[in-house]
Hints:
Blueprint: H1 3-7, E1 15-19, H2 46-56, E2 61-66, H3 70-83, E3 92-97, H4 104-114, E4 121-124, E5 128-130, H5 134-147, E6 151-159, E7 170-177, E8 182-189, H6 200-205, E9 209-212, E10 215-223, H7 227-233, H8 240-249, H9 251-254, E11 257-263, E12 269-271, H10 275-286, E13 300-303, E14 307-310, E15 314-315, E16 320-322, E17 325-326, E18 331-332, E19 337-339, E20 342-343, E21 348-349, E22 354-356, E23 359-360, E24 365-366, E25 371-373, E26 376-377, E27 382-383, E28 388-390, E29 393-395, E30 404-408, E31 411-414, H11 457-475, H12 479-493, H13 497-512, H14 521-531, H15 533-539, H16 543-558, H17 567-577, H18 583-591, H19 598-626
Parallel strand pairs: 1-2, 1-4, 2-3, 6-11, 14-17, 15-18, 16-19, 17-20, 18-21, 19-22, 20-23, 21-24, 22-25, 23-26, 24-27, 25-28, 26-29
Antiparallel strand pairs: 4-10, 5-12, 6-10, 7-8, 7-9, 13-14, 29-31, 30-31
Amino acid sequence: MNKTNDLLSKEKVVQSVVIADTFTDEFIPISNDIPHALLSMLNKPLIDYTLEFLSLGGIEEVFLFCSNRSELIKQHIDKCIAKGEGWSLTMKVHIIVSESCQSFGDCLRDLDAKGLLRSDFVLLEPGVLSNVPLLTLLEKHRDIMKLDKYATMTIVLQESGVGHRGRGSEDLVLAADSQNRILFYNKSTKNRSKKIEFPLEMFLENPSLSILHNVRDTRIAICSASVLPLFSDNFDFQTKDDLIRGLLMDEEILEGTIYAHVLRGNQFGGAVASWGTYRSLSQELMQKWIHPLNQPRQKNRILKNNTVIGACSKVSNTAKLSSSVLGLNLLIGNNVIVEDSFVFSDVKLEDNVIIKRSIIGPGCIIKTDCTLTGCVLGQDTVLEKSTCIENGLLQSSTPDNESFEKLSNKAYKLLEDDDSNKSHRLFVSDDEEDDDEEGFSESEDELSYTQSPVPDDTKLFFTEVIDSLTRGFDDNLVCENLILEINSSRYAYNVTLKEVNFNVVRAILLISLREPIGVQYFSHLSRLLSYFAPVLKNYLRNESAMLDSLQAIEDVVSSGENIKEKWVIAVLQHMYNKDYLAEEVILDWFRNLENSGDLYKRVKPFADWLEEAEEASSDEDDDEGSD
């Protein structure tokens, strides 16, 4: 029997533990009424994505541990089983309830006391979305255990560029040896620590080390059977990070080692741990980065301007919606503006409402002329006419043990102090800086190591693109593979599609200027453009992308590169003949060029030719019409 069949045998049921609750106030006031597992993402509960991922990954038995509003989760799971959801056909889900648990560690101690887990298992923190093949990871962990009897856990990390939204507010730095065994682990809130000190002996004792900062924690871990007893024996372990730090500090006493596995390419893992990561994962899901997990098409329709809206919703023709996710059964009035926001189901937005960078919980009513910016509204909140709020947390009932301001009978605004309830501000704006930065006063010497500028993600993306394309051309690789590499880099550095189009064309054009010795230049240019035809065809799909490519040509001409006299015309002619560029797009772009500029003079002969051809075609049509 091979390894996969052995994993699927009855003697070794593949088990997973899913902790349903975050035990934080990150999602207040939404979490006052809705358990984290049922938080809607693209109009589908988070737990549905998690269970679908586990089922596709080969898991046969799941222990779903709940401590908050477990009755709602039970009802949802029962409903899914009755409907015959795909995961229910291949996987058993057991709901474990313990309302006394106050932390992640308490949940694992409770599970250890119940004796439900028989061997290695997959451990998920709340809100995980992934497409990782779990059986493969389990096998790798078991291979490690054969070589290291103390191997306790393999944490799964996602390659993620610095500044990527999916990293949330956490910075993770770790060091691992050549076998991926973790020797140093530091997870902190951004801007809390200005420098990190590594133990010198770590470098002296290990001839090869990898220091990783371009990763994020997916909240997925492959665990040995010893994990639960370690939590039971150490009551100060409240989180997974506590376990990792404890094992690194007292490795010889606790007899446990931790390993890392980094996901790359099209493998994806992440967890909803804050509104920032909620926003990021929603976008990844919309863009199909987590394939085969997909949004529920039967409940959603895609609108222009990167907006999703749920079924049975009524939207005025005068409403302006952009970069938002809207729920089921909405009623949206005249002249409503919704930008970069999440509006849950059964919400009513009356006329002239403006919502920007906000989260509107289910059942809310926002009356005429209200304006909300950077707000989170709990379930069933009602805002009266002409209410304007910025950066506020609101709920429908009187808050317990909180400072608040009453706005209406069903709207209470939580009053924030300097240290609490700032989690939602991670969602407010990409440009907003962390206020805590002002609290530091280190000397210039202490901060000298940070004085170099932070690398621009777009520049790093361009560097990877030009490296991939150069290697592909030199080695005659299949262009489809190069497209996958480019898309992977796009995800890693979180660049926009416009930046992708511009930088891919720019990279190809710059490569074309590297004339090989002994080869005629324009022959080399034609061969190179023909080779990259699948890449150009993949990215130049509409007028916007065509304009991006023309701007790339403009950038190369202005860069000071050594350009042949007829280079611009040769490139334009080739891309026009291959239908990568439309005639009207080229002419519109040309008309906006500066008349006295060098590029205008270079392009003019080609533009004149296009206009003459257009006039000739128009005359022929007129002649045919007169006949």
